[in-house]
């Protein structure tokens, strides 16, 4: 967190507010205490600080109402609001997020986590982590150590604590292990691009689904009368797997999605049907002026091919245009693609050209063919970077490794 930020602490507990003030000032920030919520509503708009620490339990106007009123005021769009309260209930956390709070700290204030939490909220960064970057089949072995051998799974963790997971390939198992190690109640959204096996077949091994008290929603492309619940439960039928979805201890909901736009805890998500056999959705996540696009599996066909559609590519280009991060299918080298036209995957050259034309800021090469070892992925990066340089493009080309964390 940059030094010299200015905070207003709105709390009728002088003891708690004073501790927060001391911790902030020790780190080079300034802080003032306001014990009256009514006075805070008058003073904050006149001289907006960088952040407001806001208690919920206060006489007169409670903190949630103060948060709602501040969010409705013009000129305070960039103000960060962090609830700092003794209320640890999940309902209050969700309600605060719905009303526009950027973070939530449960009192009593803990010196070792208070500043770290504030830093995360003030930076407003999304933690994007890659858990599996391959397609079709896992690739274990010594020649896949650097990039990893697990299939598709990416997580996004937001400053307020929301968790989005994209696809449930074998990469979701190490994610499950990491989440379980936190030793606390979990909730999140699991977005399935499409129900091909390499995108769903490790969902039964996602341990948090079996823990009472956890809450997850599994969302994915609509397949007519076959629902997401049907698709998940079918692969856990007794013939194929010894445990059924009836064994889930967590509260698990299912949602069928079409093309469109919707909101989850104040985070906008757009969807688009992709060029892949069956219904496959690409996702675009909006957060604090930035976007992250997860677009796999997808075929960018060659012009002149029966699978090429300029209308589709224009729509997809509009969907990802200017995105901060495009995670997308680069399954093939160009010569490999020639014998796999119509399989629903793309070549590195077409993806690099497309990313440049769509003014993508960072291109993340994803869903690599299971036959590609680490050196092959290195060559993909070289090809992509060379082509982008030839175009004079500002797009960054990266092949993320399994476990890699990117702040967006």
Give a short overview.
The protein has helices spanning 14-26, 37-46, 63-71, 90-98, 111-123, 172-180, 197-200, 228-235, 310-320, 334-337, 348-357, 374-390; strands at 6-10, 30-34, 51-54, 80-85, 103-106, 127-132, 153-157, 163-166, 187-192, 215-221, 251-257, 260-264, 267-273, 281-287, 290-295, 325-329, 362-366, 396-398, 405-407. It is of the alpha/beta class.
**Numbering strands along the chain, what is their spatial order in the largest sheet?**
11-10-9-8-7-6-19
| Secondary-structure content class | alpha/beta
Query: Shape, please?
Result: globular
Global mean pLDDT: 93
Content of β-strand: 15-25%
Question: Number of DSSP strands?
Answer: 19
Output the number of helix runs: 12
Helix content range: 25-40%
Instruction: List segments where confidence is low: pLDDT < 50 over at least 5 consecutive residues.
Output: none
Radius of gyration over alpha carbons?
Answer: 23 Å
Report how far the terminal alpha carbons are from each other.
15 Å
Instruction: Describe the sheet with the most strands.
Output: 7 strands, mixed
Q: What does this protein look like?
A:
The structure is a single chain. A 7-stranded mixed sheet has the order 11-10-9-8-7-6-19. Strands 12-13-14-15-16-17-18 form a 7-stranded mixed sheet, with helices on one face. Helix 2 packs parallel to helix 3 (63-71) and helix 11 (348-357) packs parallel to helix 12 (374-390). The protein is of the alpha/beta class and 408 residues long. The two termini are 15 Å apart. It has helices at residues 14-26, 37-46, 63-71, 90-98, 111-123, 172-180, 197-200, 228-235, 310-320, 334-337, 348-357, 374-390, and strands at 6-10, 30-34, 51-54, 80-85, 103-106, 127-132, 153-157, 163-166, 187-192, 215-221, 251-257, 260-264, 267-273, 281-287, 290-295, 325-329, 362-366, 396-398, 405-407. The protein is built from 12 helices and 19 strands.
């Amino acid at each position: 967190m940059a030094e010299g930020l200015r905070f207003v602490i709105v709390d009728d507990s002088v003891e708690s507010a004073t501790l927060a003030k001391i911790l902030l000032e020790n780190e080079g920030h300034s802080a003032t205490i306001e014990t009256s919520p009514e006075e805070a509503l008058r003073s904050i708009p006149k001289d907006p600080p960088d952040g407001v620490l806001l208690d919920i339990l206060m006489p007169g106007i409670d903190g949630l109402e103060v948060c709602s009123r501040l969010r409705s005021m013009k000129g305070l769009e960039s103000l960060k609001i962090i609830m700092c309260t003794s209320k640890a209930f999940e309902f209050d956390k969700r309600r605060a997020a719905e009303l526009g709070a950027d973070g939530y700290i449960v009192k009593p204030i803990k010196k070792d986590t208070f500043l770290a939490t504030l830093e995360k909220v003030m930076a407003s960064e999304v933690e994007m982590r890659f858990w599996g970057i391959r397609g079709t089949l896992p690739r274990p072995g010594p020649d896949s150590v650097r990039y990893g051998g697990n299939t598709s799974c990416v997580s996004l963790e937001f400053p307020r604590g929301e968790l989005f997971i994209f696809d449930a390939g074998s990469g979701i198992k190490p994610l499950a292990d990491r989440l379980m190690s936190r030793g606390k109640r979990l909730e999140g959204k699991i977005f399935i691009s499409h129900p091909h096996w390499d995108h769903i077949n490790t969902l039964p091994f996602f341990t948090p689904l079996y823990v009472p008290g956890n809450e997850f929603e599994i969302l994915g492309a609509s397949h007519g009368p076959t629902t997401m619940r049907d698709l998940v439960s079918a692969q856990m039928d007794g013939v194929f797997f010894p445990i059924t979805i009836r064994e889930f201890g967590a509260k698990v909901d299912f949602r069928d999605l079409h093309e469109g736009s919707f909101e989850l805890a104040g985070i906008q998500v757009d969807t688009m049907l992709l060029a892949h056999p069956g219904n496959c959705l690409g996702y675009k996540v909006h957060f604090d002026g930035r976007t992250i696009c997860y677009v796999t599996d997808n075929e960018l066909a060659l012009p002149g091919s029966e699978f090429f559609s300029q209308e589709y590519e224009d729509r997809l280009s509009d969907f990802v245009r200017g995105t901060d991060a495009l995670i997308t299918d680069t399954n093939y080298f160009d010569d490999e693609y020639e014998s796999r036209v119509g399989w629903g995957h793309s070549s590195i050259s077409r993806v690099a050209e497309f990313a440049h034309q769509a003014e993508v800021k960072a291109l993340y090469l994803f869903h690599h063919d299971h036959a590609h070892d680490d050196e092959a992925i290195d060559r993909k990066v070289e090809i992509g970077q060379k082509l982008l340089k030839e175009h004079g493009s500002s797009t960054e080309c990266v092949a993320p490794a399994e476990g890699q964390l990117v702040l967006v």
